[in-house]
Amino acid sequence: MNEIWFALMAIAFLVVVGFFIYVLLELRKSAKALTEFLKTTEESLKPTMEELQLTLRSLRKVTDDVNEITGDIRTISGSTRDIGQNLKKVSELINEVSSETIIKVSGLRVGIRTALEVLLKNVFLKGGNQ
Q1: How many CA atoms lie within 13 A of 12 on its CB side?
Q2: Cα 14 to Cα 5, 8, 10, 23, 28, distances in angstroms
Q3: How far lies 69's CA from each of 61, 66, 72, 75, 81, in Å?
């Protein structure tokens, strides 16, 4: 009976060892497949990562250009505001000068008219008295 138990245990041990060897072989195949999958994935991701880096560089250049354009627009806006203020000052100056000119011309016209009236009165009065 001991021999039967010993034989059954030996058979069971061989079955377990065989199963263990089979599991190890399958595990090795799975590890090899996983390694190949990772290599393939890495190779396919390399161009994608390079393209992503180029895209990020392009995006950074675009944002730098936009920032530069925004600065230029601020400068133009400030210059436009200055031009508007200068035009307003020139317009006020022209209005002031034209007002002063109108006043001077009106005063000159009144002065000439008064001088002519006085001259004419004196000519006629002196000419009529002689």
Answers
A1: 6
A2: 14, 10, 6, 14, 21
A3: 12, 5, 5, 10, 18
Distance CA 125, CA 19 (A): 152
Distance CA 67, CA 59 (A): 12
pLDDT tens for each residue of 80-98: 999 989 999 999 888 888 8
Q: Which residue has the tokens 């895209």?
A: 55
Q: Which amino acid would we find at residue 112?
A: I
- Dist. CA 25–CA 16, nearest whole Å: 14
- Integer angstrom CA distances of residue 110 from 13, 98, 102: 139, 18, 12
pTM for this model (two decimals): 0.45
Residues 99 and 106: their CA atoms lie apart, in Å, by 10
DSSP state of 1: -
